[in-house]
């Protein structure tokens, strides 16, 4: 039965493991210990496990140009606007529809970007200044329309990426955020505090999970405001002190109490 369920993919891996455990316990209670041992040794077929899709964390200039040209060719202006914003600002997909233009003069754009992961310890709303770009200005107007939908844009980008780059990890809007991290890390002249403010982080340590210096492609033109810089902390978060031996034993006993039948 377990083999059939796995071959037909009728249940998830976790459910399959639960069935295996139930059969093992049943056989033990019936006195069939050898059968219980054989059931315990069964493993879910590796080829039937759903593989987690690879995530693209780099978008070079050529890849971005191909995606832009394809969106233009299909007159997909919703996706085109999302690509322009993601490439210029490196924001999270959930933040795109909340972008507001605060200032538009002297050849610069002042933008407000609401933080999508804003808590007491991480994330913040951003106020940035960037050189004026007509394409970026038009893209912001498009995403502010009620008919624009981030999920539709994400699905279209996934479909286009799979069609244009077969066999490669699909490019997502979040890939541009990782690319921004690479661009910032590649420029050693930018202080860590400024890099974190551009990314919208409260700590200089958070940017460590984004991008690689060797994947940097261009100079970042985003300038954070002083109010955002003042919020960034350069102190790394402290780790909890190690538990003593009695405290460890007490915690283990507490955790085991939840599994008593």
Provide a descriptive summary of the structure in words.
- A hairpin with a 2-residue loop joins strand 1 (100-105) and strand 2.
- Strands 1-2-3-4 form a four-stranded antiparallel sheet.
- It folds into two domains: 2-48; 61-231, Telomere resolvase (hpI Integrase, Chain A).
- The chain has 261 residues and is α+β, with helices and mostly antiparallel strands.
- The relative contact order is 0.11.
- It is 48% helix and 8% strand.
- It contains eleven helices and four strands.
- Mean pLDDT is 82; it is low at 254-261.
- Kindly report the average pLDDT value: 82
Q: Which overall shape is indicated by the principal axes computed on the Cα atoms?
A: elongated
What is the topology, as strand order, of the major beta sheet? 1-2-3-4
Number of domains: 2
Largest sheet data? 4 strands, antiparallel
Give me the oligomer status: single chain
**Percent helix:** 40-55%
Highest CATH level, the class of the largest domain: Mainly Alpha
Named CATH architecture of the largest domain: Orthogonal Bundle
CATH fold-type name of the largest domain: hpI Integrase, Chain A
Series of H and E elements:
HHHHHEEEHHHHEHH
State the total count of DSSP E strands.
4
CATH superfamily of the largest domain: Telomere resolvase
The number of helices is 11
Low-confidence stretches: 254-261
Calculate Rg over CA atoms.
Answer: 25 Å
The secondary structure category is alpha+beta
Distance between the termini: 26 Å
Strand content: 5-15%
What would you say about this model in short?
The chain is an alpha+beta fold. It is built from 11 helices and 4 strands.
